[in-house]
Design brief:
The chain is about 35% helix and about 20% strand. By secondary structure, it is α+β, with helices and mostly antiparallel strands. α4 runs antiparallel to α5. The longest helix is centred in the first third of the chain and has 21 residues. The termini are far apart.
Amino acid sequence: MSTPFYVSPEQLMKDRADFARKGIARGRSVVAVQYADGVLFASENPSQALHKVSEIYDRIAFAAVGRYNEFENLRIAGVRLADMRGYAYDRRDVTGRGLANAYAQTLGTIFSSGGEKPYEVEIFVAEIGADAADDQIYRLTYDGQVADEHDYAVMGGAADVVGTYLKEHYTRGASLEEALRLAVAALGHSESEDRTIPADDLEVAVLDRTRTQPRKFARLRPERLETLLGTPAADTPQSSGTGSPSGSSTPPDDEPPVAPPVS
């Protein structure tokens, strides 16, 4: 009978952490910036179908970097948890803090389990309140650690470089236009040279407390980004089909509801 191969628990955890960090670093950064009327999320993402930023509930948003299939499973689980809690109790009982704790338990259990590989993901859970002082941004890492971020946060890709840029240029109480320009400039910043990211290659969404609807999440389409940034978006081919981003059936900034209607 052969002797089982032994690896110390410390080395095993280190190897799992290195594996997860390398997978996350291969993705492009996601930035969250607090501004006067809410929280803005921005990422370089040319895909119009595979979103990094999504709605969870009325005032709660989710953003992620890493493996799409893994963080999409987490997003769906968060939507189901929020819907069940809001339906069984009250919509006000669905909080960003509660969702962040649930995600932390899930990620921590997966990371410490020896039966499967750790998730190669980092996520943001953000919730807006009645005013800026009540806004919350939680950052969760692959091993279930939770950090309460303030003003701005960045994860994935060149997070250190992007975070340094945000630290040097961020100002509280900025407008949506100022927050967007800061986020896009930070995403295009690098140690060698800065680059301009086209509006069509950006995925931007906001939690906007000024919206009259209960749901505060909205996506900013390339046309809106062009106006806010003052730069033209790339031309998109015209088509009469229902799936055309420039056709008459263009969907509104809001995605279909994921929460039950108010009774």
